[in-house]
Amino acid sequence: MNDLKFDLNDIVIVPAEESNIESRSECNVYYENGMLPLIAAPMDTVVSPNNFQSYIGNCIVPCLPRKSYVVRHKDNRDIFYSERFYFQSFGLCDIEKSLNQYKSGDEFYRKDNKAFYNYPNILIDIANGHMSKLIPIIKSIKQKFPDITLMIGNVANPETFANLGMAGADYVRCSIGTGAGCTTAANVSINYPMGSLIEECRKQKKELGLKTKIVADGGMKNYSDIIKALALGADFVMMGSTFNKTIESAGFNYLWGIKIPYKLAELLWKWGFPIKKKYRGMSTKAVQRSWGKSKLVTAEGITKYQNVEYSLEQWTENFRDYLKSAMSYSNAKKLDDFIGVAQYVFITDAARKRFDK
Q1: Do residues 65 and 47 make contact, with C-beta atoms less than 8 angstroms apart?
Q2: Could you tell me the end-to-end alpha-carbon distance of the chain, in angstroms, rounded to an integer?
Q3: pLDDT value at position 284?
């Protein structure tokens, strides 16, 4: 009981004793490459080759799901090598296959849809990021392809974050079972409360001198959760359900239960019609079938339908302003002065209910 772990709902951010910031417009919520500290989750009802540039245009890093590739062409290299990047997801089996082909001398990396040549920013998308075999794989990739930016995850143990970081991972997705489409924690009881996980990963990062980015992934209910995750030390926050509720998301569109094309859905939504989006976890049997798996395993995800609530631009504008306000209260003009630096206190349920509207 002396080592209880905490969630984001258990804390609030405390203003700095004094703030030299007179207007939130003084606060810069972007990294040097012009991107916000946000990543769109690699879910097929969130990101696709058809909409990933909408996220980039709103300064959000998109992460394309497995089996959903943007093929590189010689005439649009700027999309792939610009500082405003995106990640391409691969399953562990695909990564192992690519490494084995490399060892055999096959010039696989010169062919379309192969990891290490076509995609400079790669996510090894794995539910259990604690597998020991990941360590030599990461080291091998970073040795053979040092320019690759590598994201791994998910993990729910601060020690695992440290191990992956020391092996060479550039980003690590942190949290298991907290996403709106994930039932792992509910059924398997594997989890590490998000607040403690972020804070303890940040501590490992600082003590070991790691440059690995902490990606808080899953379960963000509102702007406040995102801001608290950043305050605790997350370099990025990854979201699926929140972005699925944008009109631009990759989820199928429905009006009164009838599936309709995207352009029509966009027009009707602007006219006030109640458009719904399909949303599903990536371990559902439907996704397994879409990947061509013949043997389906028990799902640890759900499918549901969500109302479209906003455009990506509308949501992002609000997020920018709310984060600027939080930073101004915290006397932080730059993200580096806010992430992992802002002060917080623990609160009771009664205290939270006082302002939780």
Answers
A1: yes
A2: 30
A3: 63
Residue type, 35: M
Comparing 99-108, 158-167, 333-342, the range with the smallest average pLDDT is: 99-108
Return the domain boundaries, the chain: 8-251+313-355
How many other C-beta atoms lie within 10 A of the C-beta of residue 288?
17
Instruction: List CB contacts of 254: < 8 A, sequence separation 6 or more.
Output: 260, 275, 276, 277, 278, 305
What digits encode the pLDDT tens for the residues 27-69? 999 999 999 999 999 999 999 999 999 999 999 999 999 888 8
Cα separation values, 28 from 24, 36, 239, 328, 336, Å: 9, 10, 21, 10, 10
SS3 75: helix
Phi and psi (nearest 5°) for 40? -85, 130
Contact 179, 216 (CB under 8 A): no
Q: What phi, psi does 69 have (nearest 5°)?
A: -100, 145
**Which CATH architecture is the domain 8-251+313-355 placed in?**
Alpha-Beta Barrel (3.20)
What are 266-287's pLDDT values in tens digits? 999 999 999 999 998 766 656 6
Contact 341, 333 (CB under 8 A): no
CA angle 344, 157, 93 (to 5 degrees): 135
Cα 21 to Cα 331: distance, rounded to the nearest angstrom: 6
Q: Is the pLDDT of residue 135 over 70?
A: yes
What mean pLDDT value characterizes the chain? Answer: 89
Cβ-proximal residues to 180 (8 Å cutoff; 6+ apart), any chain: 218, 219, 240, 241, 279
* Contact status, residue 194 vs residue 8, Cβ threshold 8 Å: yes
Q: What kind and span of H or E run contains 287?
A: helix 285-290
For residue 113, the model assigns a pLDDT of 44
User: How far apart are alpha carbons 155 and 172 in whole angstroms?
Assistant: 8
Backbone angles phi, psi at 113, to 5 degrees: 65, 25
pTM for the predicted model, two decimal places: 0.92
